[in-house]
Amino acid sequence: MIGGSRSPSPQTYARGLENLVAGDTLISDIDGRTGRLLYRGYPIADLVERSTFEAVSYLILQGEIPTAAQLEDWENELRRWRRPPRAAFDALERVPRRAHPLAQYRTMLTVAACHTPEPENTTLDAQWRRPARILSWTAALAAAAIRHLDGLGPVEPSDDLGFAANFLYQTLGVIPPEDEIRAFEASLIVQAEHGLHAAAFAALVVISTGADLGSAVLAGMGALSGARHGGASQLAYEMMAGLRDADQARTWARAALGRGHRFPGFGHRVYRCPDPRVKALEGHAEAVLKNHGMEHRWQVYTALRDEVETVLGPKGIYANVDSITGLLYRPMGLPVSAFPIPFCLAIQTGWMAHCLEYLPDGPMIEPGAVYVGSTDNS
Ligand code: COA
After folding, report:
1. Pocket test for ligand 1, best of 19, 33, 266 (most atoms within 8 A of CB)
2. Which CA distances in Å does 20 have to 14, 206, 364?
3. Is the pLDDT of residue 7 over 70?
4. Mind listing the pLDDT tens digit for each residue in 75-131?
5. Which of 273, 310, 326, 356 is deepest in the core (most CB within 10 A)?
């Protein structure tokens, strides 16, 4: 017998909250039927073409393209926070190297958060002081977590470099060629915001309780680590890396389709059409792979994409952004298990923007549940 005090109508209840909206926003506009993704009204392809990650993060957070003076202030603010507290790096020494880099990075951020100048201050002004610190600290911590996988120590930041180039420098220990920095920056730009997806919603729930922005970002990181979410880029790349050439990719994909395989890096809760982020990155991925003599990996990707989309496209399953980012990151020298990290680094911009947009008067998020157990066990 169904009991419980709340009994939502079918319109307000769906497992997985599918097709439910949890708020209104001015930050991004996503149309999953036409494949449109706009940040504050600007198409992502235009931003990739003309903008930097710094300018896009300003746009997402503040709502407008920065003037030259605003951009300079924001860049300086980001640069100011490039050196997280020593204690966060010390904490890494106690984390086993085999731990996933996302878990290492999350642990470091927790320690760093305890060393913030005003940890208990959750006034709106104090929350607005946090995004630059979180973006820059997490970039340095993420780079250190990736190096820790190989037993390497952290690299001092270079204040002459922009956000994307400095992250790559602190991760790899060398400055990559300009076209690779641009390709990497493009991946940060297209992954910087994506509405109230699972991780953004997790962050929003935390901020709605009166917690600080760092705690909200930590919640988002936990949600993002799952294989259905940010973990898919690693699995997608591993799937492609196991295939020798386009012929083998086609044969394997046909057999896998026949047994109902779930392909990592394909399908999306919102997009039932080609993912616009894939289109914005494919040219970069092809060029980077070619530069590194890895054309075969591009051929495997296109063969696999075409086979899967031919069969599953009519059902709304297309390659998603996680199928393509690894094709950029691996030739640049990032280890496979680190692929979710740049995604996390970029998308926390959107999480913070949603939190700050919600904060002034948003109520605590606390949905009910329909009790479906017995009411007469006495
Ligand atoms: N490969 C093959 N089939 C897939 C698929 C994939 N990657 N994703 C979804 N499908 C199929 C399901 O088998 C199901 O088929 P059915 O109706 O015949 O049973 C149908 O599409 C709907 O799947 P469902 O899991 O209900 O869709 P969803 O909207 O809840 O799923 C994802 C969204 C992202 C969880 C899902 O597409 C997925 O698991 N993708 C792989 C992981 C991934 O790349 N995640 C990153 C997203 S950015």
Report:
1. 266
2. 7, 19, 18
3. no
4. 999 999 999 999 999 998 888 888 888 888 899 999 998 988 887 899 999 999 999
5. 326
What are the residue ranges spanned by the domains of the chain? 28-230+339-358, 232-331
Residue 193: CB within 6 Å of ligand 1?
no
Query: Any catalytic annotation for residue 322?
Result: yes
Atom of ligand 1 nearest to the CA of 230: 46
* Tokens coding 336: 């496979």
Q: Which of 82, 167, 87, 90 is nearest to 344 (CA)?
A: 167
Number of other residues whose CB lies within 10 A of the CB of residue 121: 13
Contact 14, 20 (CB under 8 A): yes
Angle, alpha carbons 102-108-111 (nearest 5°): 145
Write down the catalytic residue from 148, 197, 322, 354.
Answer: 322
pLDDT in tens, 120-135: 899 999 999 999 999 9
| CATH code, 28-230+339-358 | 1.10.580.10
Query: What's at 45, amino acid-wise?
Result: A
- Nearest CA, atom 41, ligand 1: 264
- Whether 317 lines ligand 1, by a CB cut-off of 6 Å, is yes
Q: What is the pLDDT of the chain when averaged over all its residues? A: 93
> Phi and psi dihedrals of 36, rounded to 5?
-105, 130
Ligand 1 center–CA 199 separation, angstroms: 18
Closest alpha carbon to 230 in 322, 300, 298: 322
Rounded-to-integer distance, Cα 360 and Cα 369, Å: 27
Q: Please return the burial class of 94, using the count of CB atoms within 10 Å of its CB with bins 0-12, 13-18 and 19+.
A: exposed
If 0-12 CB within 10 Å is exposed, 13-18 middle and 19+ buried, where does residue 370 land?
A: exposed
CATH T-level fold of 232-331: Cytochrome p450-Terp; domain 2 (1.10.230)
Report yes or no on whether pTM surpasses 0.90.
yes
